Amino acid sequence: GLTQIIKMENINELSYKIIGCAYEVHRTLGVGLLESTYEACLCYEFDKAGIKYERQKELPVYYKEMKLDNGYRMDILVERQIVLELKSVEALLPIHTAQIMTYLKLSKHHLGLLINFNITNLQNGIKRYVIMEIRVIRLTSLWRSFVEKRSESEGQRCTEVWSVCRKKGLC
Q1: What dihedral do alpha carbons 75, 78, 82, 88 form, nearest 10°?
Q2: Phi and psi (nearest 5°) for 84?
Q3: Residue numbers of the chain with a pLDDT score lower than 70
């Protein structure tokens, strides 16, 4: 349980670094360029920040025991944890959400960022997608069970810790 909370905290920290790099690229280049330009510049920022990544990461589809090479590629996979799908479009559409959700599902990763660089205020162009595991729901019920078995003061402290975790999006 605690390991998963720490992992989520690290992933959240990494996502903030990614967003910081995206802001730097957007601030420097502005809007109106090709997606591939933003991708190259974002990877340059990752290199400067010491963030590991894979560009155009192949994503095979498996049907039963058959591997299909359909040419699916994630724009960037950061630190083998966060899927980035970059866009340079007038507006994000439901198909873009479907695309990143499909990549998350197929790659079995839990956090994805959809970033549209072709928008004046980048804050409005960043969408975060999380696929939660069933284990997180179990963690909630296990935590409550744990708290109920504690004395009143211990239970109060556990509840405070749980509240902080929830506010930070860690559990």
Answers
A1: -30
A2: -110, 130
A3: 1-8, 133-171
pLDDT in tens, 59-94: 988 888 898 888 799 999 999 999 999 999 999 999
Amino acid, single-letter form, for residue 64: K
CA–CA dist 100, 121 (Å, integer): 21
The predicted model scores a pTM of: 0.74
Name, in order, each residue with C-beta under 8 angstroms of 26's C-beta and a sequence gap of 6 or more: 38, 117, 122
E-assigned strand segments in the chain: 53-58, 61-63, 66-68, 73-78, 82-87, 111-116, 126-130
Closest CA to 87 of 101, 97, 102: 97
- Judged by DSSP in three states, 55 sits in strand
Kindly report the backbone phi and psi dihedral angles of residue 51, in degrees, each rounded to the nearest multiple of 5, phi listed first: -95, 125
Q: At what angle do helices 134-148 and 152-167 cross, to 10 degrees?
A: 160
Please tell me whether residue 54 adopts helix, strand or coil conformation: strand
- Measure the CA–CA gap between 50 and 56, rounded to whole angstroms: 19
Region of residue 115 (phi > 0: left; psi between -120 and 50: alpha; otherwise: beta): beta
